What does this fold into?
Amino acid sequence: MRKYLIKVLLVILGLSGQYLFSQSKKIEKDSPEKVREFFVSSLIKIGDPVLVALSNNQLRQQMPVERSPGAWDDRKHVTYLEAFGRLLSGMAPWLELGPDETPEGKLRAKYIALAQKCIHNATNPASPDFMNFVKDKQPLVDAAFFAQALLRAPKQLWEPLDVTTKENVIKALKSSRVIEPYYSNWLLFASMVETAIAKFDKEEDQKRLSYGLEEHKKWYLGDGTYGDGPDFHWDYYNSFVIHPMQLDIYKTLVEKEAVYKDAYQKELNRAKRYAAIQERLISPDGTYPPIGRSLAYRFGAFQLLSQIALWKELPKEITPAQVRSALYAMIHRQINAPGTFDKKGWLQIGLFGHQPNIGEGYISTGSLYLCSEAFLVLGLPTTDTFWTDDYQPWTQKKIWSGISIPIDHASK
It folds into this structure.
């Protein structure tokens, strides 16, 4: 019996390997246009339930709240702002391209309008979906992602808003000041909120803004990597939070004051090195090491690689097409795993499919929408070489196929 079971298992593993190999070969043949269509349709599949419900003031009513088995509480007081802030942060560069007469441009017009309604409802104290920016500590995190979205798409997500909605947004952001961040990457959440206030309102708390930036200078460990606080954490928080938020904060500050230019350039160089490391982490079949906390954020772990590609700052040894091909293999694999979505299209906890046990105590349905950060590259227009060059293998794909690659070097 034991030998029989072993044989069955080997057959299953063999068939599974053959399937994954055939899928890998199939997506290599997909045209760049088809890949972009996949990115757009995937982002919409993720975001549509959130934006449609919130635009109708029905997010609390419609969104299920799945929690990890070890959840700290019911998470209902924080999960809705998590879903909205994180989703909008990832969608923002795509929305910022604005509407046009192409099918994709018309689709953007639809989601720009939905996003603007959602911003109004989320920050209107009289709305059924008015969001919590003050209770518990978690809202500071997602006020920051919301603020980041506004900074990433000011032409579409801020400037068209009516005066009352703008006032409500600023009040909501300022209200999060009652939350003291932990002495960790959380300091950047306070910095991000104040950066948005500085850009849109001019009444920022300068100490709260600068403290997170100054502390992170002390926490740099070398080779593109920061500690999460004074200590090293082997996880994806350099990409979830630390580099992307510093980049967006410094970029905004440089627009106001040239004194930040050197700090911005230093952070950009560090981020480029970390992005190079991220590109090397993606295996030939589109998987990556399941290391550290918050794995339920799925491919959001590669936000930084996507952002560096969006900003056209990839290291010279990495082509845009190989990043597109690597992200495509990774996202395609995860988003199509059975159980990623429930029957109504809401995300479920897991890294590959539905795996509730992978969620920490702070994880709930809203948390999962950080995965949208992988789609920042959609902010590049369809004419950019990122979307027009033919398929190219990424670093691991090359080396495990016997292709020579450049020697990797650490940076300071």
User: Anything to note?
Assistant: Residues 253 and 260 are 7 Å apart (CA to CA). The first helix runs from residue 2 to 28.
